[in-house]
Amino acid sequence: MRLHYLFDPLCGWCYGAARLVEALATAPGPALPLELWPGALFPDPVRIAPGMRAHIVHADQQIARLTGATFGAAYLARIGDPAREVMLWSVPLIATLAAGPRERQRELLAALQHAHYVLGRDLADGEVLAEIAAAHGVDAALLASAAHAQATGAWIRAARQLMARAGIGGFPGFVLERDGRLQVLDHQAAYRDPQILVEYIASIK
After folding, report:
1. CATH number of the domain within which 38 lies
2. Are 96 and 129 in contact (CB under 8 A)?
3. What mean pLDDT is predicted for residues 130-140?
C-alpha cells in the first residue's frame, strides 16, 4: 500500500494542508511513507494581475478560516499591494525539492511554504531560493545541471499522469494505492482535524 500526495509549493490550499501532511507522514504504527508528487500549478512564470490578486486574497482568507493556516503580514502586504510585482513559477521550487535529500523533501517543502506564505519572500528570486536550498542540504551543482532539469520535468509529468489516473483536477490530492488500484481520499474535514484521515488510513492498513 502506498500513500501519494499531489501538491504544488505555490498552492495556497497545499499550504493549508501542511498540518495534515505532517500528521500523515509521522503517523504511528507500520510505516506508510508519504510520496510527494508536484504537479506544477505554474509551469511557466506568471505575473499576478490585479484581478488575480483579489482572487488570491479572497482564497487565502478562506484557507485560513477552514484550515487554521497563518498567512504572515509580510506576505499579505506583498500580495495585496498592486504596486509590487509578484511572479509565481513552480518549476524552480520543484527543482529545488528534487535536488534535496529525499528524506528532507517534506522539511524543505515546509521551509519554502513558510518563506512564501509567512515571510513574504520572493521565491522567483534565484538568490533567495538558493539561500533556502543551501540551508536544507541542496547540492547547488546538481540543481544547476541539465540532467537534473530533465529529472525535474519527468517528476512533474509523472505527477500529472498520476492525477489523470486518479481523476484529480486540482491540488492538494491524497491518493491511496492498493494492489494497483487508486483511491482518492476525502481530506476536506481533515484540514482542521488531521486525525480523521490518519485514523481512517490506519483502519484499512
Report:
1. 3.40.30.10
2. yes
3. 91
Q: How many domains does the chain have?
A: 1
User: How far apart are alpha carbons 116 and 9 in whole angstroms?
Assistant: 9
* Average pLDDT in the chain: 93
CA terminus-to-terminus distance, the chain: 8
Query: Residue 175: what are its φ and ψ, rounded to 5°?
Result: -130, 125
Cell of 35: 510520496
Type of residue numbered 5? Y
Mind spelling out the 3-state secondary structure of 92-108?
A: HHHHHHHHCCHHHHHHH
Contact criterion met (CB below 8 Å) for 92 and 149: no
Task: Give the pairing type, strands 2-7 and 173-178.
Answer: antiparallel
Q: Are 80 and 42 in contact (CB under 8 A)?
A: no
Percent of the chain clearing pLDDT 90 (strictly above): 78
Cis peptide before 43 (omega within 30 of 0): no
Domain holding 13, by residue range, is: 2-204
SS3 label, residue 150: helix
Q: What is the pLDDT of residues 19-44, one digit of tens each?
A: 999 999 988 765 688 999 999 999 99
Supply the pTM of this predicted model.
0.94
Residue 69, pLDDT > 70, answer yes
